[in-house]
Specification:
The protein is of the alpha/beta class and 305 residues long. The chain has helices at residues 9-16, 27-30, 37-51, 72-81, 93-98, 107-117, 134-137, 142-147, 165-174, 206-218, 239-256, 263-274, 278-304, and strands at residues 5-7, 21-24, 55-62, 65-68, 86-88, 103-105, 121-123, 153-156, 179-182, 202-203, 225-228. Strands 1, 2, 3, 4, 5, 6, 7, 8, 9, 10 and 11 form an 11-stranded mixed sheet that branches.
Length: 305
Amino acid sequence: MNHYLDLNDEVKDALERKAPVVALESTIISHGMPYPRNAETALAVEAAVRQAGAVPATIAIIGGRLKAGLAADQIRLLGERGHAVAKVSRRDVGRIVALGQDGATTVAATMIIAAMAGIRVFATGGIGGVHRGAESSMDVSADLEELGRTDVAVVCAGAKSILDIPKTLEYLETKGVPVVVYRGDEFPAFYTSRSGLRAELRMDSVADVAAMLKAKWSLGLSGGAVIANPIPAEYEMPPAVINAAIEQALSDASSAGVCGKDVTPFLLARVKDLTGGDSLESNIALVMNNARLAAELALAYSKLN
């Protein structure tokens, strides 16, 4: 166990008993939603994981300490401080720890800390990926590199639809990352269940997904896996509406000179405004859906170990 890492009592006990644990990220709290919905959602997601039979481990950096498992007041503080909390990916972890600062962890950083703790399953909203125009900007999320190297399965609603999804899938294929679509024939596009891209690997059983992960890691094949869980149909956004909002948000980001790690939070916030808040409700619904599936997967995986 890394000496920079703290486990709360609930997570520590579960890991010692080899009980199912689900990692949860904190960037979605500080940078993904407005306060107080962000903190409320994070606490509701933890409750959903518990109700499904697993232990939640919300991950962040607090006072320079890597945390797997946060108290409710820590979650509320991250939500209230919002963008004042550093957004932390792999490259930022050392600096935030050394300076004793607080950090909200992205998919990449959450995977790193989850792996340190021995947590194999992680639930989030959507993974980062190859940004539109990356052929000139070279803007590719560190999430994809992390998926290629760190042994954590990420349950998500696909890649955020603000991204170039075909290039994102090509990148994952190059990195040898299995991409499973759970009970769907198309790779989901976050706000919608369909991207127009056929699922190369569909699985309809959590037990089958768990067995695949067990075999992969037992064979010494390092790296994570994407378990793409389509948003429930009743919470989907009409493709024409969300695509129009995304195009407008991308144009606004370009005009404002937004770049780097500020792009995704800017786009998500702008899309929320352009859709009258509907995208936020879809976002919350898909995160809850992913948390429940991740808990089922963690339970199935724990039974194999």
